[in-house]
User: What shape does this take?
Amino acid sequence: MMKFKIILLLCLLFHSALGLAKKADRPAIIAYQYAIYLDSHCKVNSDKEVKGVLSGALKDKFTLVDNFDTYPVSPVLNIKLNKNVQKSYAPPSAESIKLFGKGLSQSDATKLQTISTAIIINVAYPEKYIFSGMLDALNFTEKLAIKCNGFIWDEETREIFTPQVWHELRISSWSNGAPDVSEHTIIHAYKNTEYNRGITLGMVKFLKPDVVVNDFSWSDSKSVGSLINLVTQSMVEGEELADDWSIELNIKKITNSLVNAEFSDLTFKNAQQIMKVRFNPAKPEEGDPNNFLLEMDFSGFEGDSLQEKQDALLSGLFGWKDQISYVKHNQNIDEASELARQKLPNLKQNFLNGLKAGEYIHVKAPFKTTDGDNEWMWVEVVKWGGIEIEGLLQNMPFNVPNLKTGSKVTVDESTVFDYIYYHYCPVVFKSLNPSLILYSARVSVV
Assistant: This one.
C-alpha cells in the first residue's frame, strides 16, 4: 500500500545511517514519523490535547515547531492534523492488520477503514538523544493516543498498535537504559527465487542501517531471525562497524537484560556466543525501507554452498543439538511409511503449484554410511522435478562424512520414508505480536 509520507532530512539519514560518517561541526539527526488514527473529540481540538500532554511529565522534553530546523539542537515535534487520511494517509487495510496489527480486534480493523482523521507526529533530535529522545517520543505518543482514543501507526515498521500494546511492546521492554530493538523493528521475509530474503524495517530510528540476509531456507528462518536481531541489538547498543565492515557479536555483552536472557535461553551448551560477522552494501529492492542497507556476508565461514556457510555461522554462534536413533524396521513402521508415501503425489502437486509464504516440506530419505548402512535424515525440498527431489540437508550426519547440515542433496522420490508439511500460521511466542515470531525474532512472512 502506497501512502503519502513526509521524508525528513533524507540525505542526513542516508549518509549517517551506516555509522561511518564523521561528525564535524554539525550533529547527526534522527528523524521519523508516528501517527494516531482517531475518531474522537481530538478531531476538533488536537492542539489542546497535544499541549496538555506536553504540560505534564513530558514538560520541557520537546519543543513544538511549525517547520523543522535542519539541525535541531534538542528534541522537537512537528504535529499536523490530517482530516482526509483516506485520500492522503490511508490506514492499513483489514488484511494488513491481520499481520501487522498489534492488539486490534476485527471490529477495530473495520472501524479503521472509515476513519477520516489522523494526527501526524514528526519527531527529530540530535544523535545524543538516541535513547532518551525515543523513550520520550514513545511516551508522548502513547499518552496522546489514550487521550484521543486512537490507534498508533509506526511509519517505519508499517505496524499499527492499540495504546496498551504499544506500551507493553515499545516501552515496558526497555531495560538498563536500552530498548529491545526487535520491538522497534520488524523483519519482513519473503520467497526470492528458490530461497528467501529477510530485511529489517525501522533501524533508521536508531540512525543505523537496516540488515538483509539473502537466500536462506524457511527451515532456518528461526535462527536467521535471531541472528538479525542480535546484529541490530548489538549495533544499537554501540557495536560499531570496523574498517573491514565487520562487527563482533557477543551475546553476553547485551545490555538489555531481558534481551540478554532471551538470547541466553535459546543457545545450546556448545554455542560460542561470540562471532565476528562481515557485511557488504545491499542492493535495495522494491518495498525496502528508505535507509542504507547492509547485507550479511557468509563467505568467511566453512562450507561449499551459501546455505552450508549460513549454517556454520548459526550453529557456531547459537550452538546445535542433534541425535541419532538406531531403529530396526518392523511391520508397523513399514506400514506407516507406506501410508506416507501414498500421499507423496498430492504433496508433490502442492509444491509444484507453489507453497504459501512460510510453508515448506521436509522428506526423510536414506544416505549411505561408510559401513554400507543407511542413515535416514530430513531434507527441505527446494526442487521437485520428475522422480528427483533436490533440497537442503537438515541434520548433522553421524556417519556420512561428505555431508553436513545445509548441504545440497538429491534424493530419489521412491526412497522417501516419511514427510512433514509445515504450514504457516501466526505463532505467538512473545507478547501479542501476531507475526511469525521464532527464537525471539519478529519475522513477518509477506
